[in-house]
Amino acid sequence: MSRLQAAQVPVTPFQQNCALIWDAEAGRGTVIDPGGDVPRLLAALDRAGFTVDGILLTHGHLDHAGGAAELRRELEARQGATVPIIGPDRRDAFLLSGLAEQGARFGIEGLEDVAPDRWLTEGETVSVAGQDFAVLHCPGHTPGHVVFAAPQLGLAIVGDVLFRGAVGRTDFPYGDEAALLESIRDKLLPLGDDMRFLCGHGPGSSFGEERRSNPFLRGPRLDAFPAG
Protein backbone atom coordinates (compact mmCIF):
# COMPACT_ATOMS: atom_id res chain seq x y z
CA MET A 1 0.00 0.00 0.00
CA SER A 2 2.78 2.40 -0.86
CA ARG A 3 3.76 4.11 2.38
CA LEU A 4 0.33 3.71 3.90
CA GLN A 5 -0.19 1.81 7.10
CA ALA A 6 -3.42 0.27 8.33
CA ALA A 7 -4.83 -1.03 11.59
CA GLN A 8 -8.21 -2.45 12.48
CA VAL A 9 -9.81 -1.86 15.88
CA PRO A 10 -12.79 -4.09 16.75
CA VAL A 11 -15.57 -2.01 18.32
CA THR A 12 -19.01 -2.60 19.84
CA PRO A 13 -20.35 -6.02 20.90
CA PHE A 14 -20.59 -6.79 17.17
CA GLN A 15 -16.77 -6.65 16.88
CA GLN A 16 -16.93 -4.37 13.87
CA ASN A 17 -13.58 -3.51 12.30
CA CYS A 18 -12.99 0.23 12.51
CA ALA A 19 -10.14 0.87 10.07
CA LEU A 20 -7.34 3.37 10.67
CA ILE A 21 -5.35 4.15 7.53
CA TRP A 22 -2.52 6.64 7.55
CA ASP A 23 0.52 7.92 5.72
CA ALA A 24 3.35 7.34 8.18
CA GLU A 25 5.64 9.87 6.52
CA ALA A 26 3.06 12.66 6.39
CA GLY A 27 1.56 11.78 9.78
CA ARG A 28 -2.00 12.14 8.49
CA GLY A 29 -4.79 9.66 7.91
CA THR A 30 -8.42 8.60 7.93
CA VAL A 31 -10.78 6.71 10.21
CA ILE A 32 -13.33 4.46 8.53
CA ASP A 33 -16.51 3.20 10.25
CA PRO A 34 -16.08 4.22 13.91
CA GLY A 35 -19.05 2.31 15.28
CA GLY A 36 -18.44 3.01 18.96
CA ASP A 37 -15.99 2.46 21.84
CA VAL A 38 -14.55 5.89 21.14
CA PRO A 39 -12.03 5.81 24.06
CA ARG A 40 -10.55 2.65 22.54
CA LEU A 41 -10.32 4.35 19.15
CA LEU A 42 -8.65 7.42 20.63
CA ALA A 43 -6.08 5.22 22.37
CA ALA A 44 -5.37 3.44 19.08
CA LEU A 45 -4.97 6.79 17.33
CA ASP A 46 -2.55 7.93 20.03
CA ARG A 47 -0.46 4.80 19.46
CA ALA A 48 -0.49 5.29 15.69
CA GLY A 49 0.41 8.96 16.12
CA PHE A 50 -1.28 10.59 13.15
CA THR A 51 -3.63 13.54 12.62
CA VAL A 52 -7.09 12.56 11.41
CA ASP A 53 -8.19 14.43 8.29
CA GLY A 54 -11.62 12.83 7.99
CA ILE A 55 -14.05 10.10 9.02
CA LEU A 56 -15.57 7.91 6.30
CA LEU A 57 -18.70 5.79 6.63
CA THR A 58 -19.49 2.83 4.38
CA HIS A 59 -23.11 2.57 5.58
CA GLY A 60 -25.54 3.54 8.29
CA HIS A 61 -25.62 0.60 10.70
CA LEU A 62 -24.95 1.32 14.37
CA ASP A 63 -21.76 -0.76 14.59
CA HIS A 64 -20.24 1.22 11.71
CA ALA A 65 -21.46 4.75 12.40
CA GLY A 66 -22.66 5.00 16.00
CA GLY A 67 -19.44 6.53 17.33
CA ALA A 68 -18.79 8.96 14.48
CA ALA A 69 -20.34 12.05 16.09
CA GLU A 70 -18.53 11.55 19.41
CA LEU A 71 -15.22 10.77 17.72
CA ARG A 72 -15.48 13.92 15.61
CA ARG A 73 -16.05 16.07 18.72
CA GLU A 74 -13.09 14.54 20.51
CA LEU A 75 -10.79 14.89 17.52
CA GLU A 76 -11.77 18.48 16.81
CA ALA A 77 -11.11 19.38 20.45
CA ARG A 78 -7.71 17.71 20.32
CA GLN A 79 -6.63 18.85 16.87
CA GLY A 80 -8.21 22.28 16.80
CA ALA A 81 -9.52 21.76 13.28
CA THR A 82 -12.65 20.51 11.56
CA VAL A 83 -12.85 16.76 10.97
CA PRO A 84 -15.52 16.09 8.33
CA ILE A 85 -17.73 13.01 8.29
CA ILE A 86 -18.09 11.76 4.72
CA GLY A 87 -20.48 9.16 3.34
CA PRO A 88 -22.32 6.98 2.82
CA ASP A 89 -24.81 7.39 -0.02
CA ARG A 90 -27.83 9.50 0.94
CA ARG A 91 -30.07 6.43 0.73
CA ASP A 92 -28.82 5.45 4.22
CA ALA A 93 -29.99 8.73 5.80
CA PHE A 94 -32.85 6.96 7.57
CA LEU A 95 -30.36 4.69 9.34
CA LEU A 96 -27.99 7.48 10.40
CA SER A 97 -30.89 9.45 11.87
CA GLY A 98 -31.83 6.44 14.01
CA LEU A 99 -28.48 5.35 15.43
CA ALA A 100 -29.33 6.14 19.06
CA GLU A 101 -32.55 4.14 18.71
CA GLN A 102 -30.65 1.26 17.11
CA GLY A 103 -28.19 1.28 20.02
CA ALA A 104 -30.95 1.29 22.64
CA ARG A 105 -32.59 -1.67 20.92
CA PHE A 106 -29.38 -3.67 21.36
CA GLY A 107 -28.55 -2.32 24.82
CA ILE A 108 -25.58 -0.27 23.63
CA GLU A 109 -25.32 3.12 25.29
CA GLY A 110 -23.70 6.27 23.97
CA LEU A 111 -24.39 5.91 20.26
CA GLU A 112 -25.48 9.11 18.53
CA ASP A 113 -27.37 10.01 15.38
CA VAL A 114 -25.13 11.66 12.84
CA ALA A 115 -25.54 13.84 9.75
CA PRO A 116 -22.59 13.59 7.35
CA ASP A 117 -20.93 16.73 6.07
CA ARG A 118 -20.94 15.18 2.60
CA TRP A 119 -23.02 12.42 1.07
CA LEU A 120 -21.34 10.27 -1.56
CA THR A 121 -22.42 9.07 -4.99
CA GLU A 122 -21.00 6.53 -7.38
CA GLY A 123 -18.17 7.90 -9.50
CA GLU A 124 -16.81 10.32 -6.93
CA THR A 125 -13.45 9.93 -5.23
CA VAL A 126 -12.51 10.41 -1.59
CA SER A 127 -9.13 10.94 -0.01
CA VAL A 128 -7.93 8.22 2.35
CA ALA A 129 -4.63 9.23 3.91
CA GLY A 130 -3.91 11.39 0.88
CA GLN A 131 -4.67 8.65 -1.68
CA ASP A 132 -7.64 8.72 -4.06
CA PHE A 133 -10.22 5.98 -3.53
CA ALA A 134 -13.12 5.55 -5.94
CA VAL A 135 -16.63 5.47 -4.50
CA LEU A 136 -18.69 2.47 -5.58
CA HIS A 137 -22.38 2.30 -4.65
CA CYS A 138 -22.93 -1.32 -3.57
CA PRO A 139 -26.48 -1.71 -2.21
CA GLY A 140 -28.08 -4.84 -0.83
CA HIS A 141 -26.92 -4.91 2.79
CA THR A 142 -28.26 -1.36 3.07
CA PRO A 143 -29.65 0.87 0.32
CA GLY A 144 -26.84 3.42 0.56
CA HIS A 145 -23.82 1.20 1.19
CA VAL A 146 -20.61 2.36 -0.50
CA VAL A 147 -17.22 0.74 -1.05
CA PHE A 148 -13.92 2.59 -1.30
CA ALA A 149 -11.51 1.16 -3.89
CA ALA A 150 -7.97 2.11 -4.91
CA PRO A 151 -6.81 -0.17 -7.73
CA GLN A 152 -3.47 1.63 -7.82
CA LEU A 153 -2.88 0.41 -4.27
CA GLY A 154 -4.53 -2.97 -4.71
CA LEU A 155 -6.87 -2.22 -1.81
CA ALA A 156 -10.60 -1.85 -1.19
CA ILE A 157 -12.60 -1.14 1.98
CA VAL A 158 -15.84 -3.04 1.51
CA GLY A 159 -17.75 -2.64 4.78
CA ASP A 160 -20.39 -5.37 5.05
CA VAL A 161 -20.74 -6.21 1.36
CA LEU A 162 -18.25 -9.09 1.28
CA PHE A 163 -16.35 -11.09 3.90
CA ARG A 164 -13.90 -13.95 3.91
CA GLY A 165 -16.14 -16.89 3.15
CA ALA A 166 -19.40 -14.95 3.43
CA VAL A 167 -21.42 -11.97 2.17
CA GLY A 168 -23.39 -9.27 3.94
CA ARG A 169 -26.76 -9.96 5.53
CA THR A 170 -29.83 -9.04 3.52
CA ASP A 171 -32.55 -10.19 5.93
CA PHE A 172 -33.55 -6.64 6.85
CA PRO A 173 -36.77 -5.04 5.62
CA TYR A 174 -34.63 -2.92 3.31
CA GLY A 175 -32.19 -5.70 2.36
CA ASP A 176 -31.88 -6.98 -1.20
CA GLU A 177 -29.93 -10.18 -1.84
CA ALA A 178 -30.05 -9.84 -5.62
CA ALA A 179 -28.68 -6.29 -5.44
CA LEU A 180 -25.90 -7.38 -3.08
CA LEU A 181 -24.75 -10.20 -5.34
CA GLU A 182 -24.98 -7.93 -8.36
CA SER A 183 -22.79 -5.38 -6.58
CA ILE A 184 -20.17 -8.04 -5.92
CA ARG A 185 -20.34 -9.43 -9.46
CA ASP A 186 -20.41 -6.18 -11.39
CA LYS A 187 -18.38 -3.79 -9.22
CA LEU A 188 -16.00 -5.68 -6.95
CA LEU A 189 -14.81 -8.78 -8.77
CA PRO A 190 -13.95 -6.86 -11.98
CA LEU A 191 -11.35 -4.94 -9.96
CA GLY A 192 -9.17 -8.04 -10.24
CA ASP A 193 -8.20 -11.16 -8.34
CA ASP A 194 -5.18 -9.51 -6.77
CA MET A 195 -7.22 -6.77 -5.09
CA ARG A 196 -7.17 -7.23 -1.34
CA PHE A 197 -9.94 -5.93 0.87
CA LEU A 198 -10.61 -4.91 4.44
CA CYS A 199 -14.10 -5.78 5.61
CA GLY A 200 -16.41 -4.88 8.46
CA HIS A 201 -16.08 -8.12 10.42
CA GLY A 202 -13.36 -10.74 10.60
CA PRO A 203 -10.20 -11.03 8.53
CA GLY A 204 -9.78 -9.54 5.08
CA SER A 205 -9.12 -11.45 1.90
CA SER A 206 -8.73 -10.88 -1.84
CA PHE A 207 -11.39 -10.78 -4.52
CA GLY A 208 -9.70 -13.69 -6.30
CA GLU A 209 -9.73 -15.88 -3.22
CA GLU A 210 -13.41 -15.16 -2.61
CA ARG A 211 -14.35 -15.72 -6.23
CA ARG A 212 -12.68 -19.15 -6.07
CA SER A 213 -13.75 -20.34 -2.61
CA ASN A 214 -16.59 -18.28 -1.14
CA PRO A 215 -19.64 -20.60 -1.01
CA PHE A 216 -22.00 -17.64 -1.41
CA LEU A 217 -20.45 -16.88 -4.78
CA ARG A 218 -20.98 -20.39 -6.13
CA GLY A 219 -23.96 -22.43 -7.26
CA PRO A 220 -26.75 -22.18 -9.84
CA ARG A 221 -27.86 -18.70 -8.80
CA LEU A 222 -24.39 -17.30 -9.39
CA ASP A 223 -23.23 -18.76 -12.67
CA ALA A 224 -21.96 -15.27 -13.54
CA PHE A 225 -19.06 -15.82 -11.09
CA PRO A 226 -16.77 -17.96 -13.27
CA ALA A 227 -14.03 -19.95 -11.59
CA GLY A 228 -10.54 -18.68 -12.34
Protein model, in words:
This protein is of the alpha+beta class. It has a single domain (4-222), classed as Ribonuclease Z/Hydroxyacylglutathione hydrolase-like (Metallo-beta-lactamase, Chain A, 4-Layer Sandwich). Helices cover 25% and strands 25% of the residues. It is built from seven helices and 13 strands. The strands form three sheets. A six-stranded mixed beta sheet has the order 6-7-8-9-12-13. Strand 8 (146-150) and strand 9 (155-157) form a beta hairpin. The longest helix has 12 residues, at 68-79.
Numbering strands along the chain, what is their spatial order in the largest sheet? 6-7-8-9-12-13
Strand segment count: 13
How many DSSP helices? 7
CATH-defined architecture: 4-Layer Sandwich
Helical fraction:
25-40%
Report the CATH C-level class.
Answer: Alpha Beta
How far is the N terminus from the C terminus?
25 Å
